[in-house]
C-alpha cells in the first residue's frame, strides 16, 4: 500500500474487533525458535511485520503453516543461527532472535538492526545484560556474534527496555541456573510472552513487576492465543474522537488502555468500559494534559501520535512530553500540512486546537506517525493523500477495509 486517498469530514461509526497485538506476537514468534516442539498461535494479526518475521523463521529452517486462523510453527528442523540480514534489517524485533537462538543453540549471529549499535535506538541494554550473564558478544561486519548459554545470576536493567527484557527472558530459557531480571519492563506484552512461555513449560514468575525470575525447565510445544493490540485499539479510539464519531471496540482488554481512556474522557468523550469491550461517543473536544509518555503503566509512546491527531481541533492547548524516544515527533510537519497548530521544542510539543482542518498531502514517516496522518485526513474537510503509506502495513491489518466498514471514504491509489 503506497498511497491512500481519503475524503475527510465523516464521523467514524460502528463496531470493530481489535486485532492480535503486534508487539506481543513478534517476541512470541521469536520465542518459537527456542521451543523444541509444535507451537500453535491464534489471533496472529495479518500485518507485514508478522509476514517478515515468518520469512526470517523459515530461513532458519522452521516450518510455518496457517490454517483457519491458526498459525502452526514447528522448529524441529531449525538449522541456522544466522537470520537473513536483509529481512532482519526490516524490523527491530529481529534482535529478539538473539535470546531465542542462544537458549536453543548456545550461539547466534544477529545482523544489527539499522547497522549501528550506538545510534538512535541502541542495543546497549540488551548486550550488557546478556554479557553480565556470561554470554560472549562481539560485533563483526555488521553482525553480533554471540556465544555461550547464560549462567544463572542477576541481570539489572538501568531502564525498563521492553526489548531487552524480552531478550533476557528468552536467553534465560537456556541458562544453566535461575536468572533474575531486575528493573524489567512491565508492559502487557511482556506478560503475554511469559504466559506463552509458561504454556510451553517455562518456569517464569514476576512478569508485570520489575523483578522477573526464570528457572531452568524443559520446554515443549503449546497452544496460545495472542492478546489484543492495545495500540491498534488506541488508534481507532483516537480516530473516532477526532471525527466526532461513535465506536464500539470488542475483543480488547480495557484495563490495558487506562491512560488512553482517561485522556479521551478528559477531552470530552463519553466512554463505557465493558468486559472485553469499550464504547466511545465523541463530543466537542477540549484540550487535556499534559500528555507525558513513559514505560507502562504510563501513557504509551506508541499512542502519542494518534492522540495528538485526535486533539488537533480540541478547544485550548495540550502539551505533549515524549520521554521514551528522542525523535518521536516526526509526524508533526505532516499534521501541520492539514492546518494544525503545533510547536515543538526538543521532547515537548504544544498543540493548540484549530476550528477546522483542511485536506492535504502528507508522507508517513513511521507506523504510528502514519496513523496520526490518517486520523488528521479523516477529520479534515476535503480530499487528502497519504504517501509512503506502506509504513501502516507494518502494524494495521486490513486498514482500508476496516476504515470503510466504519463509514470512511478511503481507497488505495494505484
Ligand atoms: C518496544 C515496542 C515499541 C514501543 C517501545 C516502548 C515492540 C516490537 N516494539 O520497542 O513499539 O514503542 O517498546 O514501549 O515491542 N534503549 C536503549 N538501549 C537499549 C534498548 C533501548 O537506550 O539497549 C532505549 C531506546 O532507544 C528507547 C527506550 O530505551 O529510547 C525504550 O526502548 P525499548 O523499551 O527497548 O523499546 P523497543 O523494545 O525497541
CATH class of the largest domain: Alpha Beta
Give, in spatial order, the strands making up the sheet with the most strands.
Answer: 21-22-1-23
Task: Kindly report the CATH topology of the largest domain.
Answer: UDP-n-acetylglucosamine1-carboxyvinyl-transferase, Chain
Helix content: 25-40%
Strand-residue fraction? 25-35%
Shape: globular
CATH level-four homologous superfamily name of the largest domain: Enolpyruvate transferase domain
Topology, number of strands: 23
Low-confidence stretches: 114-119
Number of domains: 2
CATH architecture assignment name of the largest domain: Alpha-beta prism
Rg (CA only): 21 Å
Bound chemical compounds: uridine-diphosphate-N-acetylglucosamine
Structural class: alpha+beta
Distance between the termini: 9 Å
Number of helices: 14
Mean pLDDT: 95
| Biggest sheet descriptor | 4 strands, mixed
Q: Strands, helices and their partners?
A:
Layout: E1 3-8, E2 13-17, H1 22-32, E3 38-42, H2 48-59, E4 63-67, E5 70-74, H3 85-88, H4 97-105, E6 107-111, H5 124-132, E7 136-140, E8 143-147, E9 153-156, H6 162-172, E10 179-182, H7 188-199, E11 203-205, E12 211-215, E13 222-225, H8 230-242, E14 246-250, H9 258-266, E15 270-274, E16 277-281, E17 291-292, H10 304-310, E18 317-321, H11 332-337, E19 341-345, E20 348-352, E21 361-363, H12 367-379, E22 382-387, H13 390-393, H14 399-405, E23 409-413
Helix pairs in contact: 1-2, 1-7, 4-6, 5-6, 8-10, 8-12, 10-12
Bound molecules: uridine-diphosphate-N-acetylglucosamine.
Amino acid at each position: 500500500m503506497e498511497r491512500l486517498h481519503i475524503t475527510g469530514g465523516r464521523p467514524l461509526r460502528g463496531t470493530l474487533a481489535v486485532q492480535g497485538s503486534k508487539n506481543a506476537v513478534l517476541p512470541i514468534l521469536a520465542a518459537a525458535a527456542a521451543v523444541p516442539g509444535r507451537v500453535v498461535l491464534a489471533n496472529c494479526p495479518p500485518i507485514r511485520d508478522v509476514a517478515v518475521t515468518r520469512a526470517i523463521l523459515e530461513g532458519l529452517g522452521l516450518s510455518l503453516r496457517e490454517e483457519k486462523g491458526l498459525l502452526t510453527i514447528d522448529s524441529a528442523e531449525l538449522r541456522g543461527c544466522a537470520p537473513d540480514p536483509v529481512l532482519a534489517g526490516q524490523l527491530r524485533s529481529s534482535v529478539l532472535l538473539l535470546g531465542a537462538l542462544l537458549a536453543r543453540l548456545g550461539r547466534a549471529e544477529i545482523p544489527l538492526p539499522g547497522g549501528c549499535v550506538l545510534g538512535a535506538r541502541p542495543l546497549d541494554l540488551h548486550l550488557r545484560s546478556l554479557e553480565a550473564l556470561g554470554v560472549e558478544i562481539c560485533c563483526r561486519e555488521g553482525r553480533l556474534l554471540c556465544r555461550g548459554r547464560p549462567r544463572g545470576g542477576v541481570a539489572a536493567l538501568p531502564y525498563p527496555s521492553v526489548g531487552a527484557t524480552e531478550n533476557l527472558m528468552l536467553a534465560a530459557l537456556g541458562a544453566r541456573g535461575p536468572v533474575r531480571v531486575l528493573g524489567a519492563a512491565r508492559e502487557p506484552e511482556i506478560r503475554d510472552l511469559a504466559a506463552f512461555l509458561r504454556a510451553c513449560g517455562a518456569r517464569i514468575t514476576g512478569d508485570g513487576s520489575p523483578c522477573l525470575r526464570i528457572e531452568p525447565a524443559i520446554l515443549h510445544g503449546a497452544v496460545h492465543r495472542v492478546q489484543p493490540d492495545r495500540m491498534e485499539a488506541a488508534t481507532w479510539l483516537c480516530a473516532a474522537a477526532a471525527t466526532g464519531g461513535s465506536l464500539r471496540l470488542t475483543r480488547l482488554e480495557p484495563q490495558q488502555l487506562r491512560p488512553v481512556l482517561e485522556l479521551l474522557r478528559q477531552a470530552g468523550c463519553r466512554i463505557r468500559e465493558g468486559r472485553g469491550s469499550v464504547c466511545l461517543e465523541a463530543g466537542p473536544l477540549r484540550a487535556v494534559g499534559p500528555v507525558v509518555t513513559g514505560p507502562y503503566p504510563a501513557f504509551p509512546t506508541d499512542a502519542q501520535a494518534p492522540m495528538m491527531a485526535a486533539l488537533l481541533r480540541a478547544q485550548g492547548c495540550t502539551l505533549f512530553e515524549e520521554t521514551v524516544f528522542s525523535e518521536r515527533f516526526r509526524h508533526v510537519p505532516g499534521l501541520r500540512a492539514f492546518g494544525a497548530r503545533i510547536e515543538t521544542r526538543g521532547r515537548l510539543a504544544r498543540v493548540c486546537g484549530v476550528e477546522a482542518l483542511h485536506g492535504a498531502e502528507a508522507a508517513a514517516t513511521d507506523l504510528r506517525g502514519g496513523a496520526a496522518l490518517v486520523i488528521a485526513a479523516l477529520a479534515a474537510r476535503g480530499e487528502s493523500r497519504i504517501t509512503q503509506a506502506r509504513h501502516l502495513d507494518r502494524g494495521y491489518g486490513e486498514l482500508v477495509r476496516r476504515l470503510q466498514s466504519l463509514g470512511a471514504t478511503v481507497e488505495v491509489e494505484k
